[in-house]
Amino acid sequence: MGNHKVDSVYHEGKMGIEDKDLLQLCEREERILITLDNDFSNDILHPRGTFYGIILLKPETQGKKVFLDLFKEFLNKYKLEDVVNKVVIVETHQIMVRWDCI
To answer: Closest Cα to residue 53, out of 64, 40, 72, 44?
Structure first.
């Protein structure tokens, strides 16, 4: 859906990178972080202005298809550009936007 470049920390050679350092890298490169790690929704650890954008996927079950379906659900309703400076939490039956409204 769309023309997006998606990569993983594994393929980027960034395994084991600290969360703060990963967010700084994403901000420098103007990349949105798509993650399953709940720590990235913690506004004390990662306050507004310390990242480019975060999409937190929270599936009910595990598996590549489940993750892809959640992300497609997000893309059906929003554009990636809408995530800049925000944390978006995507669950099976709802999408929550933290900080500014889209």
So the answer is: 40
Do 90 and 55 meet the contact criterion of CB atoms below 8 Å apart?
yes
What sign results for the dihedral spanned by CA atoms 28, 43, 9, 64? negative
- Count the neighbouring beta carbons within 10 Å of the beta carbon of residue 9: 14
pTM for this entry: 0.87
Any idea what DSSP says for residue 52?
A: S
* Span 41-90, pLDDT tens digits: 888 888 888 899 999 999 988 888 988 889 888 999 988 888 999 999 99
CB 33 within 8 A of CB 53: yes
